[in-house]
Amino acid sequence: MPPHSIGSGTISFGLVSIPVRLYTATSPQNVSFNLLHAKCGSRIRQQTFCPVCNTTVDRNELVRGYEFAKDQYVRIADDELKKLEGEASQVIDITEFVPLAQVDPIYFERTYYVGPDKGGEKAYRLLADALAQSERVALAKFVMRGKESLVLIRSAQGGLMLHTMYFADEVRDFGEVDKGASAKVRENELKLALQLVEGLAADEFDPRRYEDEYRQRVQDLIQKKVEGQEVTTAAPAPPRAQVIDLMEALKESLAKRVPSGERKPPAKAAPKRAEAAPAPARATAAKKAQGGKK
């Protein structure tokens, strides 16, 4: 089934305008459940309840409120918010081009595929090729559903992708988190860790190698219950032992994960030279040898 466009817009850089359409790039496959009444098995309905009036409230009776102090609210009407929304412009105005490596992935929020709209094919290809050859990405602002968003446009898979991003004040500071700076890592520990990394290294990322095994187990459980089969619960996995010796843990990891042919064998120690016998002992040995001759 062809992807469904969620909206249109115009990418603008310099005097070039590119009519485009946006498409959702991801589709989460989480298993969702409904809440049922355990007694009769019927699906429940959630209601909005006012504890002061002791009554159920219809949705058309609700208003928005912002809590500015404990149990104190200021009311905000929908039309007041509507007036504050960004201008309903479909223009994605590029402000600068930066190297992708300079953008921390922590700022990425959601991803959309971007395709050319009618008449924008040549300009679309021009931007996609220019971004690919310059190895840069475009940063722009775009109003989506009334919310102003910071977006990043990059060349990928022969086309363009658009990522909505968090603003700087939406990303929490990492500076207050302990990063183990007081721990001292020995050089031989680092060498073993690097050897383990190299042994598990791959030249490219292949997402097909990874599957959501938990989701598959949930779906299998559901299917068995639908078919009326008896479900046997697997025994829990044994807990991992606490790491006591970091060097031993690294060595054991190398032995299990890295094929022996890829590990460099340890350098062989030089053979020990036999120690010379003391002088008196040598003299005694010589006399015995002479006495034994006939």
Could you outline the blueprint of secondary structure elements for this entry?
Blueprint: E1 5-13, E2 16-24, E3 48-50, E4 55-57, E5 64-69, E6 72-76, H1 78-84, E7 91-99, E8 108-116, H2 121-134, E9 136-144, E10 147-156, E11 159-165, H3 187-199, H4 213-226, H5 246-257, H6 279-291
Parallel strand pairs: 1-7
Antiparallel strand pairs: 1-2, 2-8, 3-4, 5-6, 7-9, 8-11, 9-10, 10-11
How helix-rich are the residues, as a percent range? 10-25%
Strand order of the largest sheet: 1-2-8-11-10-9-7
Q: What is the percentage of strand-forming residues?
A: 25-35%
Unreliably modeled segments: 265-290
CATH class of the domain at 5-27 and 88-170: Mainly Beta
- Average the pLDDT over all residues and give the rounded result: 81
- What is the total tally of β strands? 11
User: What structural category do the secondary elements indicate?
Assistant: alpha+beta
Largest pleated sheet: 7 strands, mixed, barrel
Give the C-alpha Rg.
34 Å
Number of helices: 6
N/C terminus separation: 106 Å
- CATH-defined architecture of the domain at 5-27 and 88-170: Beta Barrel
Assign the CATH topology of the domain at 5-27 and 88-170. Ku70, Chain: A, Domain 2
Tell me the series of helices and strands, N- to C-terminal: EEEEEEHEEHEEEHHHH
**Overall geometric form:** extended
Write a structural description:
Helix 3 runs parallel beside helix 5 (246-257). The protein has a seven-stranded mixed barrel. It has a two-stranded antiparallel ribbon with strand order 3-4. The chain has helices at residues 78-84, 121-134, 187-199, 213-226, 246-257, 279-291, and strands at 5-13, 16-24, 48-50, 55-57, 64-69, 72-76, 91-99, 108-116, 136-144, 147-156, 159-165. With 294 residues, the protein is an alpha+beta fold. Residues 265-290 have low confidence and may be disordered. Strand 1 and strand 2 form a beta hairpin. Among the domains are: 5-27 and 88-170, Ku70, Chain: A, Domain 2 (Beta Barrel), CATH 2.40.290; 48-84, no CATH class.
